[in-house]
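User: Hello! My lab partner asked me to get a predicted holo structure for this protein. The small molecule is magnesium ion, SMILES included with the sequence. Please write out the structure tokens.
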Amino acid sequence: MSSELIEQAASGVGAAAVAPVLLDVDSVEASYGPYRALFGVSFKVFEGSATALLGSNGAGKSTVSRVVSGLVPVTSGRITFGGQDVTGMPAWKIARLGLAHAPEGRSVFGSLTVLENLRLAFRRSLGKDAVAAALDAAFSEFPRLRERQSQLGGTLSGGEQRMLALAKVLAVPPRLLIVDELSLGLAPKIADEVFERLAAIRSRGTSLLVVEQHVGRALELADTVVLLAKGLVSYEGPVSELGDLAHQVLPAGDGRQRGRNGTASDA
Ligand SMILES: Nc1ncnc2c1ncn2[C@@H]1O[C@H](COP(=O)(O)OP(=O)(O)O)[C@@H](O)[C@H]1O
Ligand SMILES: [Mg+2]
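Assistant: Hello! Below are the structure tokens for the protein in complex with magnesium ion.
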């Protein structure tokens, strides 16, 4: 796959417009103690694109999300965001450059109300003077959270918790939003809603890096795919040229089982 083709696909048009690189991950290695998780990962996210980062369980997807957002240090390689070298930069500084990360798992405080969750997140990311305006914006973006502002985070439905997790990182429209397995464990209809929300966020100018273990919805949203296997990139290119590769290595998931050779392929 030539990089020219990738750029054309990412920009969604012909050769005339080539989108600039927003995120450049170059030969990145990372470890947890003695255990090496990434072995020289390289890929690019283009301005305006939605890139799906796919790979089976344990491939290193969450580690990539964490090194890009500054939560896990790289042991070698380089990460550039918006033209700026962010390798080794603390997470809060990277966030203020416009990189939002909705991490894997529960990022909602169960014993705090919706309102308290949002206040805490906005106070941290924006400072206390900006909290009121950010709350207004979050409640108009997610009306259901306004209705449920006094409810404890832990008693929200799975879908509402994901919306709250998104609202917490979207205070300022970011240049890049990384979402890690946001639809995991959700009923298909609720997962659809979450993905509709991501499409809306993208339409307002935020680029997306969508981390998923299943290929279904992520590929409907994305124009570019990065396939990760055992801490290395095994494919990078337009969704249109992926062919059946993703389906060969990953479950279809999303409640849309895809039988190959007569076998159910969901993990
Ligand atoms: N906090 C951690 N401590 C030690 N090993 C970890 C930690 N997080 C992930 N790993 C290991 O790193 C590898 C990549 O994990 P991860 O990035 O979570 O993969 P994925 O998100 O693709 O499922 C796995 O082998 C996993 O066991
Ligand atoms: Mg993960």
